[in-house]
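User: Working on a comparison across species. This one is MFS transporter from Streptomyces ficellus. Can you predict its structure so I can line it up against the others?
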Amino acid sequence: MARPESVRPLLLDAEADALPSPRGAAARRALLAHPVLLLAGIVLASLNMRAALASVSPLAGEISAAFGLSSTATSLITSVPVLFLGVGAAVAPWLGRRLGTEQVLLGALLLLAAGILVRVLPSLYALYGGGVLVGTAIALLNVLMPGLIKRDFPDRAASMTSVYTGAMIAGATVVAAASVPLERAFGGSWEASLAFWSLLAAVAAAVWLPQVLIARGRTGREVRVAAAPAGPVRGVWRSALAWQVTLFMGLQSLWSYVLIAWMPTILTDHGMSRSTAGVVFAFNNLVQVAGAFLVPLLAGRMRSQRPLVALVTSLVAVGYAGLMVEPVSGAWLWAAVLGVGQGGAVGLALTLIVLRSGDAVTASRLSGMAQTVGYLLAAAGPLAAGAVHEATGGWTVPIALVLCVCAAALVTGLLAARDRRVRVGAR
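Assistant: Here's the predicted structure for MFS transporter from Streptomyces ficellus:
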């Protein structure tokens, strides 16, 4: 027997304020009649959600040398995609409602494959333009994948979220470890190494295509069920708590993307070999699974998540400080400490969106705000770190600035972790 709407699990979804029409419900049942195919599509799509970003960092030196880029210009290779993670997050819910989640996810995978190939064309404009396509594609996957999982697996949302999160981190780990060996296998061609990962996106698109064909019956599918509040609407953008959640999301994303952009370079600049630096970076990505899995479970059992905020920000600060003091001899330790902190922080940031929301509609709007503003803020991290490194000739000052970001994240996180709710409604 179906549960009443009032007791259904909170859905963080582009379609949170809608119920399927009879045609839509039939199409969803058809989708779930092929669980192995659907699961394979989710896993393969998730493998791509960080791979295209993680593939660049171990090869940053070769890309920079090929185009004669400064540190600041090199940082744009990472900053441009992250910037468009925010831009894409702003339009993803609208596209999902208008075209259907399955269709948009297929388009995102095809766009990702194209962006990866454009990025390796012999042009600086193509390098950055491909980053625009890559960032936009990943943004669509980031925003719509959790909603699809929670929509189609409402009774197994937690376990399925672990599957897709684990696949996302596994993809980044494998790509980070394989980028330099692939470059060598292709005769020293960083272009071939980067382009290789377009195959991963193409295979995911091919496996996802049947879901789109099955889901065609969902055209014109939605019946709106959320009544508009009387009087002027107070949105999440005017809520202090919503801004606190958003800033914590943005600041933890900023320290993560600085590491994604520059960790191998920091290690190689201090004498570590490129291949070893790539493996340490891959290990950092792998360890993130532990924090991303455990911290949200703990957060859901606590009225206030302040101890977890203090824990994850402290771990990240200790790891960054270690990279400043002993970057090579302590590299594996700092990679582990940072990984647990990074994974825990992103898991906590996403969990706070749900915990601080009073209803499903608010959760959807707060998610859009947090991801849009958060990624726009995070895009400044790699760029600023590269510019400061270029100006100072070392990594001490850039890392010190990231430690200031950790302090700011601690303050905003402690405020966001209070047992309160953001509510969207009439004033």
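For your comparison, note: The radius of gyration is 21 Å.

User: Helpful, thanks.
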